Fold these 4 entries.
Entry 1:
Amino acid sequence: MKNIIFIAPPAAGKGTQSELISNKYHIPHISTGDILRKVMKEDSEIGEYVLEVISSGNLVKDEIMYSLIEKRLGEKDCQEGYILDGFPRNVEQAKKYDEILDHLGQELGYVIALEIDEKLLAKRITGRRVCEDCGTIYNINEPSETPEIESTCDICGGKLYQRNDDNLESFKNRYQVYLEKTGPLKDYYEKKKVLYKVNGNQSIDEIFEDIVALLEEHK
Ligand code: AP5
Ligand code: MG
């Protein structure tokens, strides 16, 4: 399986689709946001820094991202392909990612852009709940994504929490950062002929069907 990266605004469904792809194709889902949320819990200077940056909706320093990414992509389970969700997020990171791939002897693979109307995102942001034990993502604003028992994970019984950047104020900045810094990556990858656009306004299943179709068509 070729590697996959996602370019999409906050709450567009990167994590949701990555999990579905990971289960179908048996390749790891690497979410830089999830990695940083673990760092954020550490009682250390870097933990405090990451907590502050994520809460505000800005980007963590590139150098921190590079060391986290290089270490993770070098692990054995990434040799047969992986889904990278959340990196690169600006042109500098994209250039560095090209270097990391060269160094690891890996290819870019697919770059999937989930295209979605901004007005749908606020509803997804405010309704998201995540299991603190297994990471399953829910949405209390979407009947099909609501847990059976309030605040409890259907899969493992873990407690559901709301991310500290899942509020409208932080979302406003995250969306702005996306438009200014991450959006231009679509051009970057279009020039390399590896960009695939998918309509993110559809249901989770419809988006997944479109993604599987493009992966199968461009094997
Ligand atoms: P990150 O965790 O990557 O956050 P994000 O990009 O804002 O994306 P989200 O995780 O919010 O959304 P998603 O697209 O995964 O959506 P999901 O599937 O959960 O990054 C967080 C922060 O970390 C950044 O702001 C930054 O500070 C830092 N960071 C991370 N990477 C970095 C980097 N490379 N450099 C520097 N800093 C970095 O879905 C959202 C909700 O919608 C869920 O509730 C879900 O159930 C629901 N949903 C999903 N799809 C659908 C659908 N089709 N219909 C209806 N509901 C849906
Ligand atoms: Mg996510």
Entry 2:
Amino acid sequence: MTTSSHATHGQEALDLLAPQPGERILVLGCGDGVLTERLLKQGVEVVGVDTVKERVTAAQERGVDARVMDAYKMTFDREFDAVFSIGLLHWMLDPQTVLAGVKRALKPGGRFIAEFGGHGNTAAICTALIAALQFRGISTHRRYPWYFPTPEEYRHVLATVGFKVEHIALVPSPKTLPPGMERWLSHFAEPFLHGLDEDLRYAIIDNALLTLGYSLRDSYDHWTADYVYLRVSAHL
Ligand code: BEZ
């Protein structure tokens, strides 16, 4: 489970959550707890889960009741007024199973608010990486790591699990990358490159950078990533 920086976005989703003092809220993918701490300060009883032990420890150090738990295997039962998730669900390729766990965790009438990569997220970056792999005859089967649904697709999945949608929309959110695209790729392109020799990995990254320079780099050598979020609010 990998999450994006919680410090830099999430306020609009928090506004949708509209947490009330005394509510019990589950944060799915709590990361290092920065955003979760904001809920605590609003008088909310928060439980955070994440699969990465170091992040859970960091969240605990901020005073969050954080636990190591996989979003596919949540054990909560009708405990929460709301489930809140930022920057995680595009890593979960089986949304139905995750949402079934979210539903189990919620009290009757409970709400689910999430923001994650939506349709078109980092489309230029994905296409450049896929093209560089295909050019070398390397199959992308089992390499593409993300689930970036359209609002229509996700609305349907939510409905099949039993949620009613209040709000669902794509939010184009271009993000400047001060350290540049190479640094971004060295972190996020890993699933596309696993098992390949080092020389081949470098060649693929170089190709992708060359292609992406045309669309995502400006004349000052500043890079922007083509982020698109899906923001959703639903209830049982
Ligand atoms: C993220 O988890 O931050 C992320 C994943 C895929 C593309 C862009 C961002």
Entry 3:
Amino acid sequence: MSNDFFKPVSGMDLPRFAGIPTFMRLPHVSLGHDIIIEVDIGLIGVPWDSGTTNRPGPRHGPRQLRDASTMIRAENGATGVRPFETLNCADLGDVGPNPADIADSMARITEFYTQVLTHNIRPLTAGGDHLTSLPILRALAKETPLGMVHFDSHTDLFHSYFNGQMYTHGTPFRRAIEEGLLDPKRVVQIGIRGTQYDSEDQDFAKSVGIRVIKIEEYFARGLRDVMAEAREIVGSQPTYVSYDIDFVDPAFAPGTGTPEVGGPNSFEALQVVRALDGLNIVGADMVEVSPPFDPSGGTAFLGVSILFELLCVMARAQT
Ligand code: MN
Ligand code: MN
């Protein structure tokens, strides 16, 4: 049972527009705090977008997502899951990046997550652009390669950008495969679409056995069928979930750097996460929310709603 200290502040006790916004109104527990040893799931902000190749802004994501997350209540209305009752959840704060140095930022992120893991805390991350996932995986997959369910309109499997630059938000999972952090046979990418430079990324996917489910196949087969296959691919072994908000159609999530039309709606955006129930999820992230392109705040609200669904399936995995 969870300790009362870790219960989110209810909107019945303090109005949602009041107070200092932490993720889902949870207590802020820094890594140096004694009570860190009691945390089961840590929500972590990574305000970093140095891997962005086009429209920037996800460095502002965690602050906006914290604000939007004050709307999240304690119970999942669809599944009945009440994650804060079974687990101690806390906002572990932000990883401070070095916005002028990609390698240093990645080292800082890996070091932070390594410390998180020493306390047996499972991380749920609010990015940040998609390069954020690579230094997280370097900490999480130190012992053994992970499987991954990846929602995105892009594979992020390209070899390099801009005359050999290896570290961008279009390359994190190519590096993760090369570094042995992911088992390619246990990786599934869902929602891929849009115009492309070439098929170098997808040729690579095919060559190593990554399953790419393009949006045409997703809509032809339907969500249930596709997610049943995704569950089979990752199986019962440790699995990471990486969720790029541009998986969702830009009519519902315009506040992102690389939108692609013809995607799932906001209802399906939640449903695909519910379909992960029971998997062995060791960590998850929500990336690429860009507040400067989100003047209504609607993309951030969808982002935190997805984060809550991720938290619910992570909570079920632990109990
Ligand atoms: Mn991505
Ligand atoms: Mn994307």
Entry 4:
Amino acid sequence: MPSLEKLKEKLQNCKGCPLCSTRTNLVFSDGNPNADIMLIGEAPGADEDRLGIPFVGRAGKLLDEFFKKAGIDRQKDVYICNTLKCRPPNNRKPELSEKKACAPYLKQQMETVNPKIIILCGATALESFIKGTTISRARGKVFKGSKGTVFVPIFHPSYLLRHHSLEENSPRDLMLKDLRFIKKLSLQDVTEV
Ligand code: URA
């Protein structure tokens, strides 16, 4: 997929916001650029910044466990990236100016991968695409995007690190249900949904 490689190269030299001067590594993507499912998270944390790969820290490992339980293969079934490609210092929330600077690159990733389903993982990713709702209300629902793609918001795994219950309708229970639903949806014609 040469255009993603070119985009990554371009981003290595991006000076669109000040985060380029504090990051260690650009965190562009992981997984399969030909996958039917794309996941958009918030921004790299310390482990991601160190390794240059999204979702490899504690939250990422928990996400992997949920993927496995839902029958989703991280390397084969999903293309994973973030709203921001560079780590905000001390893991603070991305600022609007940083999201605006990174948005054209994310858009190009979305257009090139052209997945059936885009998972909006957590509130930051949700807010960029679906207005006037919250992650608790929106998670597990299908929102129609343009060109036949659908968006499905889910909880961010860092939220699940603070909520351990597996009871019916607990955040972890809902996360597993949402990912199982997404897996099933990925096997369907989503334009019919
Ligand atoms: N949280 C995110 O949103 N993205 C990562 O890559 C890691 C943690």
